[in-house]
Specification:
Largest sheet: 2 strands, parallel
Radius of gyration: 36 Å
Bound molecules: heme C
Strand order of the largest sheet: 1-2
Length: 388
């Protein structure tokens, strides 16, 4: 102790003091720099945090940026050493769940990492202005149009460093994320409906020789005139149910981040039918609300008579039945064969099945319009039936 005091008080020892203090300062700086650099290596991000980042490392190793450092994307571009130290302090509390194994999975389920990542993170290495693109066959891409709108790179390339397709996650409770490079994800902003932020017309993103009809539509029963068309209806019903449950999932999942130019939402809440079809396309063909409103069951007679063609499209079993109100027979007189008009068959039905069933819908006076002996003839049928 006295030697230390001596060092400070004795003017003769001043050069020695300067050397010692200098050494101490350098040592502190080295330790600080060492810990900042050390905690910034991919080794530090993956090995000591082995458990937490096990799955992220699997995806990272599959990606095109496997030779880049984690901090190139995950820490501010040209940040000062102080920024880095502050960031380390900010994430320090994560150490506890890491050690205890109580961390939450899936990590980044709400994509806040992508939503918060600024453009500079990518443009520090990439310049899109003079790059010739070689996109996948059939895809047209315009980077400048998005840059002009302040749309960040990871609004689309969110999985670029962590592709999940060929990876099997190991950690219990971990789940894969949305990938925004698909068409549905483009339709978070693009749309065929009027007033959309960006165009949905096929020609905006596909060349003219591109096959626009997806394979799902080739399935038998998808749509056939006067035939089985339940396929597309079932696919739509399933899709609409999926979207409803995704909307519940997405509700309140994230608040708008600093670098988000607009709240683009999640890919899962996009109804895939409405990426390729404007709603008008469906209603134009249906002509009526589908599925029918509840009131339809007991109140379709008038609607049907007013515009029978709008019903015949679906209810006629062939071209002949599509004339006038003949299609009504498809439901009302199922005893008849669709090949011949019902009027030519109705008496066969009466002869074989009796007329009682007819009067569930028809007033006997209805028969009388054509049958001169009308009500009497009807009464006779009923009696005949009762007598048998
Ligand atoms: C080229 C840029 C880039 C590099 C390099 C990179 N990441 Fe990422 N990382 C991202 C982006 C972008 C996301 C956001 C993904 C999203 O929200 O869908 C992300 C997400 C994550 C997540 C959240 C979980 C997930 O899968 O979404 C973790 C954890 C992570 N990165 C860790 C790492 C580690 C560890 C390294 C180094 C081994 C690394 N990252 C290297 C860009 C990068
Ligand atoms: C530290 C430099 C660096 C950073 C930061 C970086 N990249 Fe890259 N990136 C590369 C290199 C190197 C390649 C491989 C050569 C090439 O295609 O340019 C590459 C390739 C790519 C590719 C083509 C290969 C593929 O997987 O599709 C895309 C897309 C890409 N980067 C997007 C991004 C995005 C988006 C970001 C920001 C999240 C980013 N990069 C950040 C260096 C970087
Ligand atoms: C609106 C969506 C979107 C945004 C935003 C976007 N990209 Fe792309 N990018 C694409 C698409 C789509 C392709 C073509 C991919 C394909 O067809 O495989 C592509 C291709 C690329 C490629 C590969 C080029 C090649 O060699 O074919 C790179 C690198 C790239 N983008 C980097 C970036 C960077 C950096 C940014 C931000 C400045 C950015 N992208 C912003 C959608 C986007
Ligand atoms: C975050 C919103 C957003 C997303 C996501 C997005 N875009 Fe865009 N896109 C825009 C905006 C905004 C424009 C500019 C519209 C305008 O100028 O009228 C645009 C324009 C375009 C254009 C130019 C169209 C034209 O005819 O001018 C192409 C091509 C394009 N986007 C492709 C894509 C592709 C491919 C994807 C998905 C990989 C995608 N976009 C995802 C917002 C987005
Ligand atoms: C904003 C850009 C964009 C627009 C507009 C767009 N597409 Fe696409 N489309 C894509 C991208 C990106 C892919 C490739 C990624 C994928 O498979 O999801 C794709 C893939 C496809 C595929 C092949 C994949 C599949 O689902 O079978 C078909 C078919 C298709 N588009 C049809 C259409 C039709 C029809 C329209 C017009 C109504 C259209 N696209 C408009 C971006 C777009
Ligand atoms: C990737 C684009 C794409 C998607 C997604 C898509 N369709 Fe289509 N669909 C088309 C194209 C292209 C046509 C042909 C349009 C034309 O001939 O005008 C078509 C035609 C149809 C037809 C008319 C009958 C036929 O097969 O030509 C029906 C019905 C239909 N789609 C229903 C649906 C339903 C329901 C969904 C959702 C489950 C859906 N489509 C999703 C591209 C798509
Ligand atoms: C080319 C004509 C046509 C087009 C286009 C069309 N539909 Fe249909 N739709 C039909 C027919 C025919 C039926 C009756 C199906 C049956 O017999 O089960 C139907 C029935 C339906 C039903 C009712 C199913 C039920 O059992 O209640 C739904 C829902 C439906 N379509 C959704 C759609 C959607 C969504 C689109 C647009 C993406 C679409 N349809 C486009 C012809 C069409
Ligand atoms: C786009 C095809 C389509 C059109 C157009 C259409 N329907 Fe339907 N309709 C259906 C389908 C499919 C069902 C069966 C729904 C189900 O089983 O849930 C149905 C059911 C009905 C039912 C209920 C039958 C029952 O057993 O409960 C009545 C009544 C009916 N339609 C009358 C009409 C009338 C009247 C019109 C014209 C104003 C019309 N429909 C137009 C497809 C159509
Ligand atoms: C898809 C099958 C279907 C078609 C097509 C259909 N109906 Fe019906 N209709 C029914 C059924 C089932 C009932 C019995 C409803 C009940 O009482 O619950 C009924 C009841 C009626 C009734 C008595 C109740 C009411 O709505 O006032 C009238 C009238 C009627 N239909 C007229 C017609 C006419 C006219 C057409 C053709 C323009 C027609 N229906 C086409 C299935 C159909
Ligand atoms: C479920 C109700 C229902 C039953 C049961 C029913 N009908 Fe009808 N019938 C109708 C409706 C609805 C029409 C169409 C009326 C219209 O166009 O205004 C019709 C029309 C007719 C027509 C006129 C056909 C035409 O082409 O002009 C005859 C004939 C007829 N029914 C006979 C019968 C006979 C016979 C039976 C018993 C075997 C019977 N109906 C049972 C509802 C029914
Ligand atoms: C639109 C006119 C029309 C209506 C309404 C009508 N019928 Fe007929 N009916 C005919 C015609 C036409 C014949 C055939 C007469 C012939 O060729 O001998 C016929 C024949 C019959 C026959 C066979 C008579 C015989 O002597 O062989 C029976 C039974 C019959 N109708 C029962 C009914 C019943 C029951 C109703 C009411 C539910 C009804 N019809 C409504 C036009 C009609």
């Amino acid at each position: 102790m006295s030697r230390l005091k001596d060092l400070f008080r004795n003017p003769a020892k001043r050069p020695q003091l300067v050397i010692w203090l200098g050494t101490a300062a350098i040592a502190i700086a080295l330790v600080a720099a060492g810990s900042v650099l050390g905690t910034s290596t991919n080794w530090f991000c993956t090995e000591p945090c082995h458990v937490v980042h096990y799955d992220n490392t699997l995806t990272f190793n599959e990606g095109s940026h496997v030779m880049q450092s984690c901090i190139a994307c995950h820490e501010p571009v040209n940040g000062s050493p102080l920024t880095f130290i502050l960031m380390k302090i900010e994430v320090a509390p994560d150490l506890i769940p890491t050690i205890l194994g109580t961390f939450h999975l899936p990590m980044n389920e709400n994509h806040s990492v992508a939503f918060a990542m600024p453009e500079e993170q990518c443009t520090q290495c990439h310049t899109m202005e003079n790059r010739t693109l070689s996109p996948s066959a059939g895809i047209i891409m315009d980077h400048a149009a998005h840059a002009a709108g302040g749309i960040t790179c990871v609004s689309c390339h969110n999985r670029v460093a962590h592709p999940e397709d060929d990876v099997t996650y190991v950690l219990e409770g971990d789940k894969k994320h949305e990938d925004w490079m698909g068409m549905d994800a483009c339709f978070r902003c693009h749309s065929l409906e009027a007033g959309a932020l960006a165009p949905g017309a096929c020609a905006a993103c596909h060349p003219t020789d591109f096959d626009l009809v997806p394979p799902s539509h080739d399935a038998t029963g998808w749509y056939a005139e006067f035939g089985e068309s339940g396929g597309h209806a079932a696919a739509y019903t399933e899709e609409a149910a999926r979207v409803t449950s995704a909307e519940t999932w997405a509700e309140g999942l994230h608040e708008i981040e600093e670098n988000e130019t607009l709240d683009m939402g999640y890919e899962q809440t996009v109804n895939t039918c409405y990426t390729c079809h404007a709603k008008q396309f469906c209603t134009d063909c249906h002509g009526v609300e589908m599925p029918h409103p509840a009131a339809f069951a007991t109140d379709h007679g008038n609607a049907g008579r007013a515009d029978p063609a709008s019903c015949a499209k679906c209810h006629a079993r062939n071209e002949a039945e599509a004339e006038g109100t003949v299609f009504c027979n498809a439901c009302h007189h199922p005893q008849g064969t669709p090949e011949r008009p019902w009027i030519e068959q109705h008496f066969d039905a009466v002869k074989t099945g009796g007329a009682t069933g007819c009067f569930e819908c028809h007033d006997p006076k209805y028969c009388a319009v054509c049958h001169v002996s009308g009500p009497e003839a009807a009464a006779r049928f009923i009696q005949q039936e009762a007598g048998q």
